[in-house]
Amino acid sequence: MVPRGPTSLKVSPGLTGSKSIRDRQVQDDLAINFDVSLVDIMKRRMPAIKWREYDPDVIPLWIADHDFPPPVEVKEAIKEALDIGDVGYADSSEALQLMAEKVTEVNRISASPVDVCVTQGVLPVFWLACKFACKPGDEVVVTDPMYYPFFETARATEVKMNYVRLDFEDGYKFSDERLKDAITTRTKLIFVCNPHNPTGRVMTKQELKSIADIAVDYKLTVMSDELWEDIVFDGRQHISLASLGPEIADRTITAFGFSKAFGVAGLQIGYAIVTNREMMRKIKSIGFRDKSDPDEPALRGAGSLALAAAKVMLSSNVKYYIERLVAYLQNIRDLTYKRLKEIGPIGLAPLEGTYLIFPNLKSYGKSSDQMTEYLLKKGRVVVESGSRFGPAGEGHVRINIGTSKEIMTEALSRIEEALKTIKTS
After folding, report:
1. Which fold has domain 18-71+318-420?
2. Where does residue 347 rank: exposed (0-12), middle (13-18), buried (19+ CB within 10 A)?
């Protein structure tokens, strides 16, 4: 989503990337290089789990980290925070203000700092939504397929899942009739993921409006995961569900973050927006340890270094990075689709957003788990099994294309060689 952050953003000197960073903007723009070398990565063994989980000769296209360094401004902000000793208990007030300004100006959700809750990534927001809206035995609506931590959260909170199927043959379009059919008297919550993981759909305004209307009519809470908001292709615009009107805003918990755009999952910082003040009061109270129930976790927000980075990532200073990243990823998408279509009978739905593709490999006669194991053993490429993402994911795999042209080309060649030996139906 571009532009990124308010153009009038004011941030404290010393924690924003400093004047020297701004003075070097043009030089840094020219220095961005997304063409990560496979040899270089293999040699230095990138420290993130993505490259360390499997043997050194395996190309990892599984976990949803991209392989590119974050903007120099982000790295400099973290260094500056360390230099001035900003490592104590963190004051998040400035970050809250910037988050509120960003969602107001960019996402069109009118918010104040009191409407913001800083979290350790977006996953805690799934849990908070279930704890707020549901009791054990209540129901939550999920799509099938869907990012599997939604399912795990429902199970952990003893909430029953009602599936709304998204059909590959229909381009994973959302059906309001299927949503209505999934709602019962026990349904309290709808989970939305937009842009969608793992299908790569970017929901249209009409699709979102249908969810909003149904949620209001049935008096349901909605939790909208919008972590991938910046990664949208072909000139599309991400639309926030809560921006569609005050009635749906009153019922929506929206989760945002930085990890997918900036490659900073290790900072573990996200934020939730809830403009219904009574709802936010209750949600924030859920995160505190309940003395009567010592097994309840305590949520403590994010640390000072993550907050220092967030202030920069919320600003327009890194708009150039998002623009170039999306353009590069769009080229990788086009390369990947061209190659996969040449390889064989692989079903592909359009990738409208995210850097995750969800190809249909049913013609090869293997289950998702079998295909994942086969590609690892024969191709030395690791992908995610589609069955993890729900019953509709069976026969699919999820492939992370958030890497360089060189690495993706090599991975595709390995996949092609591995699939050559399988007879197709």
Report:
1. Aspartate Aminotransferase, domain 1 (3.90.1150)
2. middle
Residue 109 φ/ψ, nearest 5 degrees = -110, 110
User: Where does the chain hold its CATH 3.90.1150.10 domain(s)?
Assistant: 18-71+318-420
Out of 3.40.50.300, 3.40.640.10, 3.40.50.410, 3.10.20.310, the CATH code matching 93-316 is 3.40.640.10
DSSP annotation of 379: I
pTM summary value: 0.91
Question: CATH 3.40.640.10 spans which residues of the chain?
Answer: 93-316
CB 279 within 8 A of CB 66: no
Cβ neighbors of 23 (< 8 A, separation 6 or more) are none
Weakest-pLDDT range from 12-21, 127-136, 286-295, 358-367:
12-21
Q: Residues 179, 209: contact at Cβ < 8 Å?
A: no
Q: Please write the tens of the pLDDT for every residue from 273-284.
A: 999 999 999 998
Rounded Cα gap, residues 228 and 247, in angstroms: 24
Burial pattern 38-58, b for ≥16 Cβ within 10 A else e, equals beebeeeeeeeebbeebeeeb
Half-sphere exposure of 58 (CA within 13 A, CB side): 21
pLDDT band for position 32 (50/70/90)? confident
